[in-house]
Design brief:
The structure is a single chain. The protein folds into 3 domains: 212 residues, FAD/NAD(P)-binding domain, CATH 3.50.50.60; 107 residues, FAD/NAD(P)-binding domain, CATH 3.50.50.60; 105 residues, Enolase-like, domain 1, CATH 3.30.390. 32% of the residues lie in helices and 26% in strands. It has 13 helices and 25 strands. Strand 13 and strand 14 form a beta hairpin. The site of flavin-adenine dinucleotide has 36 residues, from helix 1, strand 3, helix 2, helix 3 and helix 8.
Amino acid sequence: MADTAAFDVLILGGGSGGYAAAFRASELGLSVALIEKDKVGGTCLHYGCIPTKALLHAAEVADQSRESEQFGVKTSFEGIDMPGVNSYKDGIVARLYKGLQGLVKANKVTFVEGEGTLVAPNAVEVAGTRYEGRNVVLATGSRNRTLPGLEIDGTHVLSSYEALTLDRVPSSVVVLGGGVIGVEFASVWRSFGAEVTIVEALPRLVPAEDEAASKVVERTFRKRGIGFKTGVRFAGVEKRDDGVTVSLENGETIDAEVLLVAVGRGPVTENLGYEENGVTLDRGFVVTDERLRTSVPNVYAVGDIVPGLQLAHRGFAHGIFVAEHIAGLNPVPVDDLGIPKVTYCDPEVASVGLTEAQAKERLGDDKVEALEYNLAGNGKSQILKTQGFAKVVREKDGPVIGIHLVGARVGELIAEAQLIYNWEAMPHEVAQLIHPHPTQSEALGEAHLALAGKPLHVHG
Ligand SMILES: Cc1cc2nc3c(=O)[nH]c(=O)nc-3n(C[C@H](O)[C@H](O)[C@H](O)COP(=O)(O)OP(=O)(O)OC[C@H]3O[C@@H](n4cnc5c(N)ncnc54)[C@H](O)[C@@H]3O)c2cc1C
């Protein structure tokens, strides 16, 4: 078996977590090898964040052209040219991929193409070559889950992976799962003209978000003609030549051309030598401490294989953290609560910190104050004709502990919200800062003004 000299950092998996660790370690003067079996950029760039957001933008363009008359603009909407949409989407991914490959070179990272297996706590083997690292970072990411007995056939039963490369707009879709990925695809397909029904076992759509946000999403989806059934479980699917019949545990059935299974993503940790080399797993996820150390000395884990939020920017933060930790910089651990989350359906949902319910559960009902600023009072939101709110949750007489936004384009506002949360700002401190008029960011300013006891554009 061929052998190579030991690297300071040996990384298995070149997605958001793995390549961020590689770049930061290299910036810090460490020698780095990055092993990737598919394409650097991983799920996010090739099969996740970027292609879905391109589809969502195309969906917004479709809606705007269909609904332009409300702005006094006459257009005629002729339909969706799916090959055209796909080439727009693929073009973006290709450009970013090229840029990322350039960064791998510029950072002098040794890129190893191939499938790696951990063969010792300090070594990974790829096609007969053994690579050693004084430190090893596991970053093998996640894959789509399905339910027992529900097989993804790529034709009528799809995961997000197949859904991203469809060459047509299905006439009707059942989306199994009302979480982030489910509602994003539901939103896209509805804008593209499909009949859509979401089935969610929990009592509400986007169940990880503040209840008030779910209500706005549900109200808006209803207006958009997106059907949904919450609090009901999937029972089975029957395939026909031209589609599927989905049955639910309450006895209902729904016919559709396509079933999208969006029931979450599980870790990629099987048959990779992790457990054999002493790495403790819990339900497939790699168990780490807050410094992302696994049960084996000098072996770390980052990104989706670590239990918690499955987000690309968490992967980046994990990767940077581990590289800095290895370099002895003593970085501050990544706290999932401080990570902003965005769901990019129409309307968008964005949040950071605790929901009102979580805050009350932790601190007690009387220790929490929440204020919901309705976007009806926000000029820019009116111009955009969007509805929703900016909700700020604070500890009574204390700092802001949660911010929740719903409405068109609010994903961009969460960047400010996460500064407020992570800096543990008091509402009166934020109230002092000036927001440009007319922007949607004023809604955040207004909510803090109101919490600081000096509301400006708030109706009693
Ligand atoms: C449809 C969809 C939409 C999403 N949208 C968003 C979004 O808008 N915003 C957001 O923040 N997150 C989003 N995500 C989540 C995001 O993609 C993940 O959180 C992120 O990619 C996790 O990064 P990672 O590095 O942990 O894993 P991954 O990106 O999955 O990377 C792991 C890499 O490891 C490689 N690998 C695995 N095993 C081996 C092996 N044995 N040898 C060599 N290489 C291996 C894989 O090929 C892969 O490239 C989305 C996900 C999906 C599926």
